[in-house]
Amino acid sequence: xxxxxxxxxxxxxxxxxxxxxxxxxxxxxxxxxxxxxxxxxxxxxxxxxxxxxxxxxxxxxxxxxxxxxxxxxxxxxxxxxxxxxxxxxxxxxxxxxxxxxxxxxxxxxxxxxxxxxxxxxxxxxxxxxxxxxxxxxxxxxxxxxxxxxxxxxxxxxxxxxxxxxxxxxxxxxxxxxxxxxxxxxxxxxxxxxxxxxxxxxxxxxxxxxxxxxxxxxxxxxxxxxxxxxxxxxxxxxxxxxxxxxxxxxxxxxxxxxxxxxxxxxxxxxxxxxxxxxxxxx
Length: 281
Description:
The protein is an alpha/beta fold and about 280 residues long.
C-alpha cells in the first residue's frame, strides 16, 4: 500500500483547502469527489496506480473550508489556486458527479489540465433531487434534518443502495466517515446542492455553450444511475465534441466503488496521457 501525506493549502482569503497526496511517476491525477464524499473516497484508485495523485477535499467537505459562494465556479477557483500552490504541473483531472462539474470549470481556468475523466458529471442539465432540495425553505429544513439521516445506518443504506451504487451496500469506511462528519457537513452540502441546481439551469451552463478545453476527455455513466440522467451525455458531447463517452451496463452512480479496476483502465486509455496507470489488477 502506497503511503500518502496530507497537504493543506491556505487560499488567498485565509480559507483552507486540504489535499491527500500520493507520490509517484508520470502525469499526476487530480481527483475531485462528489456530494457527501471526501478525498478518502479515492483511496482504492490511488493505491492502484503508480502516478502521483492529489485527492482534494472540495470546498465545504472533509477538512476544507466552504466556498465563497454556492456556485461551481467558486469551488473551481479554490481548486485552481490549490493546484498552483502545490506546484502540480500538467495533470489529468478526474471528477465524479459534483467533482465532474468542478473539473470542467477548473479545466477552463488552468493550463495545467491536459486531460479530463468525468464520471457521471453534473452541470450538463437539470437534476431532479438538487432542484427540489434547493428550493428556499426546503433547503433550510434539509440542512437541519440531514445530520439525523446520516447517523442512521438504515437511512444511509437505503439511500445509497437505491440512488448511488445500484443494489450494493455502502462500505464500512464510508459509513464511518458519514457518521463522523454528519453534524459538520450541512453547510457544505447546502452550498453544493444549490450550486448543482444553478449549474443545471444556467443559460451560460456547460450544456449551452462550447467548453473552452481542447484536451482529451473521457466520460462514463452507469446505465442504472438514478441521480444524473443519462441523456446529459448528449449535452456533454455537444459541449466537448472530442469526448469519448461510454455507458456501462448494470452500474449505478459510483464507478470508483463499483468498477475500480475497469475505471482505472478507462482513465488511462482515454484521458491519462501516457504510460501506465498501473495495471490495476
